[in-house]
Amino acid sequence: MQIVSTVAEVRTQVKAWKREGLTIGFVPTMGYLHEGHASLMKCARERCDKVVASIFVNPMQFGENEDLDSYPRDLDADAKLCEEIGVDLIFHPEPGEMYEDGFCSFVDMNGLTKELCGKSRPVHFRGVCTVVCKLFHIVTPDCAFFGQKDAQQLAVIRRMTKDLNMDIEIVGCPIVREADGLAKSSRNTYLNEEERRAALVLSRAVFLGQRLVGEGATSAEALITAMKAEIEKEPLARIDYVEAVSMETVEKVETIEKNVLVAMAVFIGTTRLIDNFIV
Ligand code: PAF
Description:
This protein is α/β, with parallel strands linked by helices. The chain contains ten helices and nine strands.
């Protein structure tokens, strides 16, 4: 497995693979990899001849008072996991390699980013779209793999790829959970013991929502009220949002039907966690 830090090195290797007629699977990450990322890489490994992963904590997708500086980083552990899974190349650039002096071009999206995380993190998706677009141009993959835990991000990337005629298949992979239900996230590492226990309220609310939908619930309002009531039982939890939206447009819906995304963001102490299910 190679670990490279420049755009030129990635391009040279990918071009060589393409000359041999090999397909490229790409997993963009911000590192501090866990089993959720591993599942994306394994999926890429099964689907494509070569697997490229990027590890880059993208400053552009963090707001002013967010956790850019404290975001966890561990390149050695990440490289070990990638090697075990059979990743062929890690792209680990410095911020200056991605955003040279004078950088002033952005990918912005008008729709899909007004609700959910887009509402509470106004600059987030501009940063995500810009960096993913750049990474797609650098790696030129056939397929790219994203987790359903960031369901709005998955919808946004699908839309961007379609709107900008990028010839890349976007593959969404299911949420990976801890044995007790908590969705895997690099940010779980911020939780102390008490908060870790309290964080289970997110998956409890997801499982409750899934059960109610399974029993025939169709009113989004009633479903959200029930899920919020479950979360509010936990004193350490503060709801940012619980919403039901269309998975395609990320606009609010009144009726729960196929392809509706029921998503939440909840602060546990100062840590903001997300979880969801798709009907
Ligand atoms: O999901 C993430 O880790 C990031 O948003 C991504 C897609 C790697 C872009 O920085």
